[in-house]
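Researcher: I need the complex structure. Ligand is nicotinamide-adenine-dinucleotide. Inputs:
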Amino acid sequence: MPRLYESRKRILVTGGAGFLGSHLTDKLLAEGHEVLAVDNLFTGTKRNIDHLHNEPRFEFLRHDITFPLYVEVDEIYNLACPASPIHYQHDPVQTTKTSVIGAINMLGLAKRVKAKIFQASTSEVYGDPSVHPQPEEYWGNVNTIGPRSCYDEGKRCAETLFFDYHRQHGLQIKVARIFNTYGPRMHHADGRVVSNFVVQALTGEPITIYGDGSQTRSFCYVDDLIDGFVRLMDTGPEVTGPINIGNPGEFTIRELAEKTIAKTGARSELVQMPLPQDDPKQRRPDITKAKALLGWTPKVALDDGLDHTIGYFRKLVGELELI
Ligand code: NAD
Ligand code: UDP
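Model: Output:
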């Protein structure tokens, strides 16, 4: 429903044609706001925002955030950055530029137009963690020179920039540390574990387990995550984060593979492949802060979220004729 003009916000979503950005855009439009989605379409796709073509409160701009942007907005959600290891390692220099120069450009914009600004940070700032589960106070265990460093260190530097703009220029910042999230509109070929396993199962390909599959991840369904984003943005200036947003339910990668096979009825075999360098062995968010400050807890269990995701990919696999 459109809002009255006075209560309607003009909101910039960078990475708006991506997986999370397009869901966030849907939610903000549903709340009656105006959304400007900015994206260079590196990993995002117009398919994710096609349904908004005739929406008068929506606008799309093809733009790379490593270049300055001059627009008038009230809030900025900075999500632009490739998120899957194969995509962010494809052009690692551009990945760091997107996180660091992109953050500087968006913070500069926020400063000029006095907008609140949200940063999509990541559990990767904890690296391969030696503290489990990970609270926000943990400083992490990150390799500065490995294949994941372009992403991890870029995101860490972006957090630093956000807090320096906050202290030095009084900007209202909101930093969310996102843990593995899945759901419809993930890129079918981005190599992330949920999309990989589901597409492999639906196309009858072997399910590729990296290492022995004993490493763990905690999977958050996209709707829960987006609800957490908006709650964080709507807090008062005293709440800056960083704040973990993720589902504390922890599963081994082998358990995820077995669940996917059971749910799809696939006859795919499980095959073991080498574990990528610096692959974190365990990951689970401590969400005490999100509960207390945002009144937020995830509601969608992995079984239900996987059902929705499998439904989405079943349709997509047919449309793209992947079989
Ligand atoms: P995604 O790849 O689907 O979306 C990222 C979007 O940013 C894409 O549409 C891409 O085209 C765009 N983009 C990349 N570089 C850009 C640039 N220089 N200028 C403009 N646009 C650019 O990934 P996602 O899962 O939707 O992730 C969104 C954000 O959330 C990212 O910042 C990511 O680091 C963060 N995050 C995601 C997860 C997750 O599990 N999905 C976990 C932690 C953090
Ligand atoms: N993984 C896997 N098979 C795949 C893709 C990923 O076993 O086909 C593993 C990967 O090694 C990692 C986990 O699944 O341990 C999550 O990988 P993803 O790329 O989704 O995210 P991240 O490592 O960034 O958490």
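Model: Summary of the prediction. Residues 7-319 form a domain with the Rossmann fold fold (CATH 3.40.50.720).
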